[in-house]
Amino acid sequence: MRIHCIIFIAFFWISGIKTVSGSYIPEIIDIGVFSGESIKKFNFTVTHGRYLICNSNHEKLLEITPFTTITLEVNQSNFKVIRNDSVLFTESNITLQGSAFYNSFLLNPYNRNLDQRAYDGDLKVSLRRDVFQLINSVPFESYVAGTVQWESGFNHHDIFYQVQAIIIRTYALRNINRHAHEGFHLCDRVHCQAYYGKVTENYIISAVDRSRGEVIVDNTGRLLNTVYHANCGGQTVNSEDLWTEALPYLRSKKDTYCSDMPGSRWQAQIAERDLRRFLQQRYRYNPSDKEWHGIRGFRQSARRNFLDPGGEVQLRHIREHFGLRSTYFSVKSNGDSLLLTGKGYGHGVGLCQEGAMQRARHGYSRKQILNFYYNHSQIEIWQTELLW
Ligand SMILES: [Zn+2]
Ligand SMILES: [Zn+2]
């Protein structure tokens, strides 16, 4: 049990966090939570354990126990810490450090569009451009479990959750220094991976635990870029079709397992004049009558990357602009509109979640599922490096 505010000693720090390299898993990971939101006031409520409030000099200011709520409110270049309507102190930087065996808390911003979230571990509070910067220092495997829940939802097969844990762990480690310049490892949005609080389901915790420390690597031992998406629509996408780099393990494959799943089909209607405007503005392209005829009857039986035969208009740009579920669609003319009939949900690169769910139900092993979506991937077990 820790009774003092602990000063972490590490080899190399940037902006207050330890940057990570080498084949090990850090014991604790720092996640920027409510990242990108402008929070000026929030409540912190202890739900389990005890929390020490420590200032930037690691001095203990106060200890709080379950069901205690404190309010933190920005006050120019500092913030006030308030309990029962009285200001306890004013600081610019504090850590709420769990001091019992298991510690958890709730964060409840006053912003009307944000809901309360629950977390394990510690919370670092500081200011960045006059709003709160909130960093959840959480055991790495707790982060993986929370992210598995937010990225894949409830009531799936145990093998699917284990696969999801392996690729989420791998993705987190590969990208772990992405936000080092901001003072944390990863953000909590889809930019990194969705982590909107701690795991709540025991069956997800068990699945994550059964894959503890497991990551996937290529034959040189390098962590793979384990991107994933909801549903590929029957065919995954080559990495270079979406980004620039052709990765040997991210190859387009036919996937027969995701076709009857919720994300497999979609329809959308867009006005022809809106597409004309987009082509003109984005590409300076004014299709001839013959070219429009081609666009009105555009078909994809296998995935294509371009709308036009000349290979100028990228389908991914059309997807982004019109907010479509995927680039895997065909077109039919419908008066002044174009009716788009599409397959799949997401960018289509890497693992297809709904295909992987079905493969798990049909008895595929973790290795078989991972090898299908990430060619020649190998599972390795990485050890956790203790911070002290
Ligand atoms: Zn991020
Ligand atoms: Zn699929």
Give an overview of the whole structure.
With 388 residues, this protein is an alpha+beta fold. It has three domains: 13-187, no CATH class; 214-259 and 348-381, no CATH class; 265-343, no CATH class. The chain is 23% helix and 31% strand. The chain has nine helices and 24 strands. It has helices spanning 140-152, 158-174, 202-210, 239-242, 272-283, 289-296, 315-322, 353-361, 366-373; strands spanning 13-14, 17-18, 24-26, 28-33, 41-48, 51-55, 60-64, 69-75, 78-83, 86-91, 93-98, 104-109, 117-120, 122-128, 131-139, 186-187, 214-217, 228-229, 265-271, 329-334, 337-343, 351-352, 378-381, 383-385. The strands form seven sheets. The chain has a seven-stranded mixed β-sheet with strand order 7-6-11-14-15-4-16. It has a six-stranded antiparallel β-sheet with strand order 10-9-8-5-12-13, with no helix packed on it. The protein has a three-stranded antiparallel β-sheet with strand order 19-21-20. Mean pLDDT is 93; it is low at 6-15. It binds zinc ion (2 copies). Residues 178-179, 186-187, 191-192 line the site of one zinc ion (ZN).
